[in-house]
Amino acid sequence: MESDNERRGAPCLSHLRVAIVHDWLTGMRGGERCLEDFCALLPHAQIFTLFHFPGSVSTAIEAMPIRTSPSLRWVERWPAARRRYRWLLPLFPRAIRKFDLRRFDLVVSLSHCVAKGAGEGQGVPRIAYTFTPMRYIWDQAPLYFNRERIPGLLLGPMERLLDRLRAWDRATHPDRYLAISRFVAERIHRFYGREAAVIHPPVDLERLPEPDKMPHGGYYLIVSALAPYKRIADAIEACRRLERPLVIAGTGEDARKLRALAGHETQFVGWRSDAEIVELYRRCRALLLPGVEDFGITPLEAMACGRPVVALGQGGAKETVVDIDAASGAESPTGIHYHEPGPEPLVAALEKFERREREFDPQTLRRHAARWDRPRFRAQIRKALEDFASTTK
User: Hey, which bits of 251-361 come out as E strands?
Assistant: First the structure.
């Protein structure tokens, strides 16, 4: 039986030869969760990626045909690659454009770095589901390239390199952008001068149990890559000042620096399985989100488990976390916003949360998170891809 899209002329995706391009496959984070859904929608597609550490992503992704960049395959054999591959950023634009995708009918990229450049100039229709314009080179560059992280003599050459990467990024575009949030759509317009439709990423409610009546474990929680823009040091300092326990789940380039800042209140538990993360959500007092997130799946996962969120009220958190003072009859509160980054505003937000903690209802939090469930995402992505393919026939 024909779908509505097929009746109005949109091609069935299963009839198309599709290349899915992802920047790299080195672990399961929000982008890879989205990639799982694209794999489910496009099971006959091939994945192209700069490099892949086998076993680092889910079986659903590993089961797909995966092609890596011939010029970067040595990265997979480099012992320090799992921690240092971002140092190779200047090599990525050239490597991504060397993929020959001319035999495909459609190129779908999931991009936060250079994946959007795959297939450029090869005559294949290209659509990019965009997690963010490359944060390393645009507004968050000072967090990555500063005197604390790079010797002063290298800052000048580094800035010239960033200028070249910005020029490449401004000149390289798919035929159509999709953005993970209104915040990212605004950044696409600001940096590229292009418009983007918004399709928010999914929350997998099936793996997140209904809230129970067990009391919380008294700790605040961060589930995050340990990267500069996440501003995890703000949470460490705020919890130190308040003498509140903080659990940090995740790994990343800032791990050593953050451990050096932490006191006895903070516990680093490293990488944890999905099941272990769920238990951390269920038992936490609240999830903390101290950085500017492009969207942020973890706040919605915490809410699905019945736990509220204390978030910097910028970026994607403005679209997912309903501040307790901004809630109206149509929306119930799901967290606390604070409006400037830093430990002092976070301390004030935590004190406010603790005064009003009883106003958060676990079942209401769960219903709020359900607005971003996985079936909704897949339906929206399928329609966007079919509509795009129909305009390029």
Answer: 266-270, 286-289, 309-312, 335-338
pLDDT per residue as tens digits for the range 120-132: 999 999 999 999 9
Burial class (CB in 10 A: 0-12, 13-18, 19+), 209: middle
Query: Taking Cα atoms as reference points, which of 379, 148, 95, 122 lies closest to residue 260?
Result: 148
Give the helix ranges, DSSP H, for 98-151: 141-144
| Buried b or exposed e, range 337-375, using 16+ CB within 10 angstroms | bbeeeebebbbebbebbeeeeeebbbebbbebbeebbbe
What span, in angstroms and rounded, lies between the C-alpha atoms of 226 and 244? 20
Angle between the N-to-C axes of helices 297-304 and 362-369, in degrees from 0 to 180, rounded to the nearest 10: 140
DSSP state of 291: S
Taking a C-beta distance cutoff of 8 angstroms, is the pair 207, 137 a contact?
Answer: no
pLDDT tens digits, 251-284: 988 999 999 999 999 999 999 999 999 999 999 9
Q: Where are the beta strands (DSSP E) in the chain?
A: 18-22, 46-49, 66-68, 106-111, 126-130, 176-179, 196-198, 220-223, 246-249, 266-270, 286-289, 309-312, 335-338
Across the chain, which distance is largest between two alpha carbons, in Å?
66
pTM of the shown model: 0.88
Residue-level pLDDT at 37: 96
**With a cut of 70, which residues of the chain have pLDDT below it?**
1-11, 81, 141, 145-152, 329, 393
DSSP state of 200: P
Fill in the DSSP letter of residue 359.
G
Terminal alpha carbon distance of the chain: 22
Nearest by Cα to 180 from 42, 23, 34: 34
Domains of the chain by start residue, with CATH? 4-202+373-391 (3.40.50.2000), 205-371 (3.40.50.2000)
| Residue 4 to residue 390: CA distance in whole angstroms | 13
d(CA 56, CA 271): 12
